[in-house]
Amino acid sequence: MDKIPMTRAGATALEAELKHLKSEERPAIIRAIAEAREHGDLSENAEYHSAREKQSFIEGRIKELEGVLGMAEVIDPKTLSGTIKFGATVTVVDEDTDEEKTWQIVGEHEANIEKGLLNVRSPIARALIGKDEGDSVEVRTPGGERSYEILKIDYV
Fold first, then answer.
1. Which helix (H) or strand (E) holds 136?
2. What is the Cα–Cα distance from 102 to 97, expressed in whole angstroms?
3. What is residue 67's three-state secondary structure?
4. Which of 36, 37, 52, 69 is most exposed, with the fewest beta carbons within 10 Å of its own?
5. pTM of this structure
6. Residue 84, Ramachandran bin (φ over 0: left; ψ between -120 and 50: alpha; else beta)
7. pLDDT tens digits along 23-71
8. What are the backbone angles phi and psi of residue 46, rounded to the nearest 5°?
9. How far apart, in whole angstroms, are the C-alpha atoms of residue 109 and residue 62?
10. Once rounded to an integer, what is the mean pLDDT over residues 95-115?
11. Are 60 and 49 in contact (CB under 8 A)?
């Protein structure tokens, strides 16, 4: 069974979501189903069917989170150094536009490009891994070819 790499922050966020689903969402949907049952005929009860659908989604998400957290290998970036690897926060400059970007390379379950969290399996992260400050990388992205120069590597 493969381990799923994850930062401490990512694991904490997933644990918080799991706790919220189990302690708040699950009891609320159970109450909503019970309330909808009291309205009588279930075959034409839209509230009941909606609540059951939401319950199915919540239970599926709980199982998914439990599975991911069960296979998680939490990696603390502060213990790492050297070339770019999982957990690194990398500042690059686009060689065509001179635009600077900073990303942290994280696991796929915590990735969020808008927040600067780059999936370790993404084309950009794969191109960056193993490189050092001052190196240039060519990346084939869905938006086309990109060239980046690595300005800074942090393990925070």
1. strand 136-141
2. 15
3. helix
4. 37
5. 0.81
6. beta
7. 999 999 999 999 888 877 777 788 888 999 999 999 999 999 999 999 9
8. -65, -35
9. 14
10. 93
11. no
